[in-house]
Specification:
Blueprint: E1 5-10, H1 12-19, E2 25-29, H2 32-38, E3 46-51, E4 57-69, H3 75-81, E5 89-95
Parallel strand pairs: 1-3
Antiparallel strand pairs: 2-5, 3-4, 4-5
Length: 101
Amino acid sequence: MNKRALFLNLTRHWFKCVENGSKTREYRKTTPYWEKRINSVHNGDLIVFRLGYTHCETHRQITRIRIVSGTALPRAEWRYFGCPNNEQKFFEIEFSKLPPQ
């Protein structure tokens, strides 16, 4: 069985947090664009984080994907998405702290 990969571009701040292991969850709005991409990967597949649109990347293994409400977002993500009434839904992609072996 071939592993699939989900590619995500991040700003330098979030990329460094993934690299050093302090960030182990990524959030995306539940839009048709993200539904198509996220529904094509499963636990055990790879998530590839890229520093912006450069060739610098790091890999992690997806451990869980679920849908959460705006009230479940950490403060930094909540501010980024600007959830005025917390009614929006988000994909929460949980991943390993270290690159897969």
